[in-house]
Structure prediction request, 254 residues.
Amino acid sequence: MNLQEIERALRELRLSGIADTLSTRVMQAQASQEPFLETLGAMLQDELDRRRSRLVERRFKRSGLDERVTLADFDWRFNPKLPRSACFELHTLKFMGEGANALIIGKPGTGKSHLAKAVALQATLQGFDVAYLEADTELARYTLAAPGERAAMLKQWIEPDLLVLDDLFLARRIGEHAAEVLQAVVHQRYKLRLSVVITSNRVVQDWGKYLGDATMATTILDRLMHRCQMLEFEGRSYRLKEAVNRIAISPESS
Prediction:
C-alpha cells in the first residue's frame, strides 16, 4: 500500500488522528531514522490525543456552558476577602467523589457564576458529565414544556455527574411547579449521591419565601446541606467595575 492508500484505510478504520499526522510522522521517521516502534507509538498517541480532545469537546457542548472560564482568569486582588482557599478546594472536585454539594451565596457581581463555571469546566476536562443551567430560566421553561419534554429535561438534570444551578432565585419568587421540580431534582440526586452546585444572591434563610413554601425549603436545604461546602462571596461587583472602566475609556467620555 502506498501513503494515500494507507491514509484511506486509516480513515475507513476511523483512525483520523493517525491519518491526519501520518505524512508528518513518516517524514520525521525518515529524517531522524527512528525505530519503527517509536514512530508507531507517536502515531498511536496522536490518535489518543485526537479522541480525548473530541470527547472533551462533546462533553463541553452537552454541558450547556456558554463560555470557558478558569480560576486563572479571576482577579483575586479586586475582592481580597473572597474565600480563595475554599474556591480552589472546590475546583479540585474532591467534593464530587464524596457526593457532596456546594452553595455559593453572595452579592451580585462578586464572581459566584465565574467560580461555578470554572468548576463545571474542570469537571468536563476530568471526564465527568455536567449539566449547567441558568436556574430560573430553565425551571420556568420546564413549567411551560409538554409532558414528554418535561420527562427528558428531568432526566438531563438528574443523571449527570455534576449539576450546576446558576443564579437561583435571581427573579426572586419561582412558580409552584418550578419549586416542585427543584425539590424532585435535589431529592433524586441526593439519593444517587450526585453533586449539585448552586449559586444565589439570596441567603438560605429566605429560600422559603422565594419558594412560597417554608416546609419545601427546609426539605431542599436538608438534602443540599447534609454534605455541603458553603462559600460566601462579599465585596464589590466586578460587573460594575468593568462598566465603569468601559465608560472611562469610551470616546464619548474624552
The chain has a mean pLDDT of 86. DSSP finds twelve helices and five strands in the chain. The chain has two domains: 3-63, 71-241.
